[in-house]
Write a structure and sequence with these properties.
mainly alpha, 114 residues, 4 helices
Length: 114
């Protein structure tokens, strides 16, 4: 179980880093990152206001990225350095809460701009 848990921690950490990278790229280019901000069934649809959509989505994606990085680091510390006990569970619940909040917020933005 430790190998699977540590691989998941690395995956979450990498996803967090990618979210931050995507935010920086979207700010610079003004183009929507399809990997993060696209969903099934949106292929042929056009965004009504790309700039506003990116401006509203970036803070949510940044929060997701930062929380994923923090959770990934805490989980790696938990697996390889010291056992964090209940703190590890608290961090997981907080991360899942952020994940649900961001998913809900991005879904509302998709409905608004697509």
């Amino acid at each position: 179980m430790d190998n699977i848990g540590s691989m998941l921690a690395v995956l979450v950490l990498a996803c967090g880093i990618y979210c931050i990278y995507a935010c920086i790229t979207m700010k610079k280019t003004g183009e929507i990152n399809k990997t993060i901000l696209s969903s099934k069934g949106m292929e042929g649809q056009q965004c009504k206001d790309t700039k506003a959509y990116i401006q509203e989505a970036i803070p949510k994606v940044q929060v997701l990225g930062i929380s994923a990085i923090i959770y990934g680091v805490f989980d790696l510390i938990n697996y390889y350095l010291i056992s964090l006990g209940i703190l590890s569970w608290i961090m997981m619940v907080l991360f899942l809460g952020v994940l649900i909040w961001v998913g809900y917020g991005l879904n509302k933005l998709r409905k608004k701009y697509y």
